[in-house]
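Recall that a protein's primary structure is simply its ordered list of amino acids. Everything else, from secondary elements to tertiary packing, is in principle encoded there. The following example makes that idea concrete.
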Amino acid sequence: MASTNGRQTHNHGAGPHRHQHHGEGGGGGLSARGQRRLLVVLLLTVAYMLAEALGGWWTGSLALLADAGHMLTDAAALALALMAAWFGARPATPSKTYGYYRLEILAAFGNGVALVVVSLFILYESYQRWLAPPVIERGALMTAVAAGGLLVNLACAWLLHGDREHDLNVRGAWLHVMGDAAGSVGAIVAGLLVTFYGWYAADPLVSALICLLIIWSSWNLIREATNVLLEGTPAHINLAAVEDSILATSGVEAVHDLHVWAITSGREALSAHVIHAEAVSQAELLKELRARLLEQFGVDHLTIQMETADFEDEAFHFCTSGTACFRSARE
C-alpha cells in the first residue's frame, strides 16, 4: 500500500501490498516432523522416568530420584511444547491477529521456571543428605539404571537437536533433556564412587552440582523468553546497525521511532518512520528497504511509515510540544 505524506506503508513480501495478519498463524512454528519427534521423546521420557523412580526408591539414591524428578519436569515440558506447537499451527483470527505464536514463548518461560524450582528443591534435599549421608547398598544397580537413563536422554537430545536452533520452546525441552543427561552422568559417577569406595556423600554432592548447572542454563532460557514477552530487541540484532543500514539506503534522509521485536522465536518484526526525499518513489524505496533488511538481519515483517521532510518536521513539533501543540494541530 503505497501512500503520500504521512500515510503508513506496510511490507511483508517482495514489494508493497496491503498489510494483513489474518491467516498468518499457520505460516511458521514447528513442522509436523518436529512434532512427531517431540511425541516420541515424550513417550521415551515417561517410560524411563518410571524406571528411574523405581530404581531410586529401590537403591535409596537421591541422584536417581533427582534424575527421575527432572524427567517428570521433562515430560511436562514436552507435553507443553507439543500443545504450543499444535496451537501455534492454528490460523490467525480477527481477535488474535498474530495467531498463537506466543504460546511457544509462554511454554518456554514456564519450562525454565519449572526447572529452577525443581532444582532448588533437590538442592535442599542434597544439603540434608550431605549432613547425614544415607547408606546405599546397591551401587552397581544404581550405576546401571543411570547408564540406561543416559542412553535414553542422549537419544532424545539427538531427536530434538535439529529444531532447537529455531524454536525457543523446543530449546527449552532440549535443555530439560540435556539436564537429565548430565544428571545421568552424575548418577553414574556417584554410583561408581559408592560401589568402589563406599563414599556415600558423593550421591548428594553430584546431585547438587547437577542442579547448579541446570539452574544456570535455565536462567538463559527464562531471560530469552522474558525478552520476547517484553517485546525487547532480539539479542542477535543490533538496533544501531539496523538504523545505519536504513540510513545508508539511497533516498532515505532520516529514520525515527525504530523498533525491532520478536513475535516468536525466529520470527522478527520491525516498524519505523522513514523520512525520504521528495523525488523518491515510495514503492521502489520500500522494496529496497525490505530486501536490505531481509538480507542483513533476516527481518521480513515490516511496518514502515513513509514521510517527507515537511511532514516529519510537523510530526516532531507535535511530539515535543505537549498537549497545547496537540490541540493546535487538531484545530
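The domain at 31-229 is CATH 1.20.1510.10 (Alpha-lytic protease prodomain-like). DSSP finds ten helices and four strands in the chain.
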